[in-house]
Amino acid sequence: MKLTTQTDYALRTLMFLATRTSRANVADVASLFGISVNHVAKVVNLLARHGYIRSTRGIGGGIELALPPNEIGLGDVIQAIEGDLHLLACVGTDRGCAIDAFCKLKGVLAEAERVQRAYLDTVTLADVVPTRQQLECIE
C-alpha cells in the first residue's frame, strides 16, 4: 500500500495536535512540516468532517483533537482519508475478470489487505505521537 500525500499530511497534523495542550492553527502545522497552508487547510477540513479534530473559527479559535489520541485508530484515519485501499480493482468486489474462475491472486491480495488493516487497527495515534520536544527540535 502506498498512501497519498493527503493521508501523510493528515497523520502529521494529528501527531502535531496530539502534542499540544491548547488549540493550534493551520499555519503552525504548515510551518513546522514545510507544507503549504492550503494543503493543511484541506486536510484539516477532512479530519474535522470525519470527527478527528475540532475547528473553531474566530478570535481564540484554531484546531484541536476532538478525541483523545488513544481513541484515534490509524487504520480508521487511513481508511477515512484514502477510501478504497484495494491492491487491485477486483479485490473487494464480486466482479470478475477473464481468469476469475481459477484466479488465486485475488484471494492472496485480499488476505494481505486484511492482515494489513488488522495491524493498523491495533495502532492508535497515542502509539506514534512524538513528544513536543522532539517536534520543537525540527522547528
Task: Characterize the structure shown.
GO terms for molecular function: DNA binding; DNA-binding transcription factor activity. It comes from Rosistilla ulvae. InterPro entries: TR_Rrf2-type_CS (IPR030489), Tscrpt_reg_Rrf2 (IPR000944), WH-like_DNA-bd_sf (IPR036388), WH_DNA-bd_sf (IPR036390). With 139 residues, this protein is mainly α. It is 51% helix and 6% strand. A hairpin with a 5-residue loop joins strand 1 and strand 2. Helix 2 packs across helix 3. The chain starts with a helix and ends with a helix. The relative contact order is 0.17. The mean pLDDT is 89.
- Please summarize the sheet with the most strands: 2 strands, antiparallel
The CATH topology label is Arc Repressor Mutant, subunit A
User: Which blocks of ≥5 consecutive residues have pLDDT under 50?
Assistant: none
The side-by-side strand order for the widest beta sheet comes to: 1-2
The CATH architecture term is Orthogonal Bundle
Mean pLDDT: 89
Number of domains: 1
Structural class, from secondary structure content? mainly alpha
From the N-terminal CA to the C-terminal CA, the straight-line distance is 30 Å
Extended strand count: 2
Shape from CA axes?
Answer: elongated
Rounded to an integer in angstroms, the radius of gyration calculated over CA atoms is 18 Å
InterPro entries: TR_Rrf2-type_CS, Tscrpt_reg_Rrf2, WH-like_DNA-bd_sf, WH_DNA-bd_sf
Protein name: HTH-type transcriptional repressor NsrR
Pfam family, one: Rrf2
GO molecular function: DNA binding; DNA-binding transcription factor activity
